[in-house]
Amino acid sequence: MKVIFKKSIKIFAMFALIGLFFFPTEMFSQGPPKWAPAHGYRAKTRHIYFPEQNFYYDIQQRSYFYLNSGKWSISVAIPTPFISINLGSAPQIQLDYYGAYPYYYNTTHCVKYKKVKVKKMKPNKVVVIDGHHHHNDNHHGNGHGGGNGKDKGHGNGKGHGKKK
């Protein structure tokens, strides 16, 4: 009985070690998100503010603060309204605030880091000076070609060509 128990422990240990080699190391790492700033900056900054989306990320707590129905909520995952946004390319502000609740100063942050508005220019107007074509086809505005409207669709006696 002891022999079977020892063999089963050895087999389990062997499978556990083999299993560790097949799992990627990223699966076990709990570092900051890929979009977070480089390591040197993390030591100086606790909160990152995303002005276009108006939410915060706490580097120490690894949590997000965001407005949800007019109240601030906290989440350890990216909040649902911001899942489709590439946070690596979104504007980020590293705040000089080391407290636990950066949203207390949200009004100040919104004013200080508001998005720069670009004036929209009206499109240039294209002016057509002469919209008429210049070949003489003598339509005189009746829109039916060279006839008076009484022909039966067999031509007007001109341009049938030679019959062979």
Strand count, sense and closure of the main sheet?
Answer: 5 strands, antiparallel
Query: Could you say which overall geometry the principal axes of the C-alpha atoms support?
Result: elongated
Helix content: 10-25%
- Summed up, the helix count is 3
Low-confidence stretches: none
- The spatial strand order of the largest sheet comes to 4-3-2-1-5
Average residue pLDDT: 73
Q: Proportion of β residues? A: 5-15%
Strand/helix succession: HHEEEEEH
Radius of gyration: 37 Å
Backbone structural class: alpha+beta
Q: How many strands?
A: 5
Distance between the termini: 111 Å
Report on this model:
By secondary structure, this protein is an alpha+beta fold. The protein has helices at residues 2-22, 39-42, 106-112, and strands at 47-50, 55-58, 63-68, 71-75, 93-94. The protein has a domain at 30-112. The chain has a five-stranded antiparallel β-sheet with strand order 4-3-2-1-5, with no helix packed on it. The longest helix has 21 residues, at 2-22. It is elongated and about 90 Å long. The relative contact order is 0.10.
Please write out the topology.
Layout: H1 2-22, H2 39-42, E1 47-50, E2 55-58, E3 63-68, E4 71-75, E5 93-94, H3 106-112
Antiparallel strand pairs: 1-2, 1-5, 2-3, 3-4
Keywords:
164 residues; elongated; alpha+beta
Short description:
The protein is 20% helix and 13% strand. It has 164 residues and is α+β, with helices and mostly antiparallel strands. Residues 131-164 are annotated as: Disordered.
